[in-house]
Amino acid sequence: MTGFVLVGSQYDRVPEFLRREVEGFPASPEYELYDEEMRELPGLACAALSAFLERLQEAELREGLSESEARSLDDAYQAIEALSRGEPEVQNLVQTEIFENFQALPKVWKAIEARLGPSATALLDDWKKRNADVAL
Question: Kind and range of the H or E element at 52?
Answer without folding.
Answer: helix 42-62
